[in-house]
Write a structure and sequence with these properties.
The complex is a heterodimer. Chain A is an alpha+beta fold. Chain A has nine helices and 22 strands. In chain B, the strands form two sheets. In chain B, strands 1-2-3-9-8-5 form a six-stranded antiparallel sheet. Classes of the chains: A alpha+beta, B alpha+beta.
Chain lengths: 365, 128
């Protein structure tokens, strides 16, 4: 079954090259993926990410429930702030990665990936039933991401309520503010400043129209992927899945170990992995030779083989970069040399710290 | 509607072939192919002097999206690869039939399975 977002026809009319993504017809690009990428690094880009799913959780039990559901600790987050977290299974594998917006002491909104939404909802509902909670799946809401150094300058022209818009522009990174069903977070998936706007479906076309008229470049999933890779952000299904621990996906920083008595799903498994120090590592790679690194290429290190989990051409850096999972015994020191099997050759690559790009600037030496 | 020049011949794998007056064959990928691939970021052309067989993968184009093989339309010997593409792969996006040519072959199109422009246009339309 193919699904369309409320902006489907808008994308087609704008020349969007539509492709299937997790059962949704989404724009890959509107002509040039490279131009869209640069627009986000230098100006402002606008993404329709309404294929992702918002889930609301409310009530006096909601916080305690989320502290058991997620590997990161929403108890450490103030009202009006957002948090990135993995949701784990009992084996410590990643069911999904998501953002929780803490709208109030007893009022939370989760945004989950499109490809995992159905299983996420089933999982959350199953756990919530035990806690006497009823998650609300908000398919009546859509999501836009306005991203880039000009995002804050363009937001006031979106046609949102003036006070809400003003409050959003005043937000710090990972802050959020809402009015009614609409919620704005200073969050994103590009490594730039920007906002994610979660709003009633019927308001989305006017927001899209106003922001593109103000100068935001419509951007497709292609640019979304190159931007997030440059920003060193993991992609579910590629860099991690239910068989991969967050510790093997460069996401150890999102696991809140303290307080030790917080018993979240997957904690025991993660703790055992941590003590055994047996998990492979995710590292950044920059290709020294000519070519393009791609997911699933084999990485040869002095301590055995690893694999690229995400790779591609980095438009900001004008060279190829990748995230790769390598054996724990291999050197993860920046500057270490590895070889990557590309077709019938071995290309030279160097381990680097990621993010590769932040706020428009290369972080490479 | 993609651009399909009448004077060229075409393959089912979306290469074009131009037969020059001296018999040299110039080969590239079609406008339809570059459009489907998206922005090109890396191109590998065959080495001068290499012998290629008809249907052999002998060059590579990589876009922001994916890597794709380019096949030799006929058997022959490589005269030269386009040296400009290493630093400017986007030339193929901008001018697929001109400056974006990929390699030149010494060979013959006699008996080769090539389409004329009308047949290629119908082929592309049928591929949807």
């Amino acid at each position: 079954m193919t699904q369309h977002t409320v902006l489907f026809q808008t994308h087609v009319d704008a020349g969007g090259r539509m492709v299937d993504f997790a059962g949704w017809q989404m724009p890959l690009h509107y002509g040039s993926q490279l131009e869209e990428h640069h627009a986000v690094r230098r100006g402002a880009g606008l993404f329709d990410v309404s294929h992702m799913c918002a889930i609301d959780l409310q009530g006096p039990q909601a916080e305690a429930f989320l502290r058991g559901l997620l590997a990161n600790d929403i108890g450490r987050v103030a009202d009006g702030r957002a948090m990135y977290s993995c949701m784990l299974n009992a084996q410590g594998g990643v069911i999904d990665d998501l953002i929780v917006y803490r709208r109030g002491a007893e009022d939370f909104r989760l945004v989950v990936n499109a490809g995992t939404a159905e299983k996420d909802i089933a999982w959350i509902e199953e756990q919530a039933a035990e806690a006497g909670l009823a998650p609300q799946v908000r398919r009546d809401l859509g999501i836009l991401a306005l991203q880039g150094p000009q995002a804050a300058a363009l937001l006031p022209q979106a046609g949102l309520d003036a006070a809400l818009s003003e409050a959003a522009v005043a937000l710090k990174p990972f802050g959020c503010v809402g009015a009614g069903d609409t919620l704005l977070g200073r969050t994103g998936y590009t490594g730039e400043d920007g906002f994610e706007i979660i709003a009633p479906l019927e308001t989305l076309p006017a927001l899209w129209q106003a922001l593109t008229a103000a100068g935001a470049q419509p951007c497709g999933l292609g640019a979304r992927d190159t931007l997030r890779l440059e920003a060193g952000m993991a992609l579910y299904g590629q860099d991690m899945d239910e068989t991969v621990s967050p510790l093997a996906a460069g996401l150890g920083w999102t696991v809140a170990w303290e307080p030790a008595e917080r018993d979240f799903v997957g904690r025991a498994a993660l703790q055992a992995q941590r003590e055994a120090a047996d998990q492979p590592r995710l590292v950044g790679l920059v290709l020294e030779d000519r070519g393009v690194l791609r997911a699933h290429q084999v990485v040869h290190t002095l301590a055995g083989e690893g694999e690229i989990t995400s790779g591609g051409f980095a438009p900001t850096l004008e060279r190829s970069i990748a995230l790769a999972r390598i054996p724990r015994a291999a050197s993860a020191e920046p500057g270490s040399e590895v070889e990557v099997a590309v077709r019938n050759r071995r290309l030279r690559a160097r381990i680097v710290k990621y993010p590769f790009v932040r706020h428009g600037q290369s972080k490479l030496d | 509607m993609s651009n399909i020049p009448a004077e060229l011949r075409y393959t089912k794998s979306h290469e074009w072939v131009r037969v020059d007056d001296d018999g040299t064959l110039t080969i590239g990928i079609t406008d339809h192919a570059q459009d489907a691939l998206g922005d090109l970021v890396y191109v590998e052309v065959p080495e001068e002097g290499a012998s290629v067989e008809a249907g052999e993968a002998c060059a590579v184009v990589e876009s922001v999206k994916a890597a794709s093989d380019v096949y030799a339309p006929v058997s022959g010997k490589v005269i030269e690869g386009n040296p400009a593409l290493a630093d400017a792969p986007e030339t193929i996006n901008d001018d697929a039939y001109g400056a974006g040519w990929m390699f030149k072959l010494r060979g013959s199109v006699d008996g080769a399975e090539l389409m004329d422009a009308a047949a290629y246009e119908a082929f592309v339309a049928a591929e949807g």
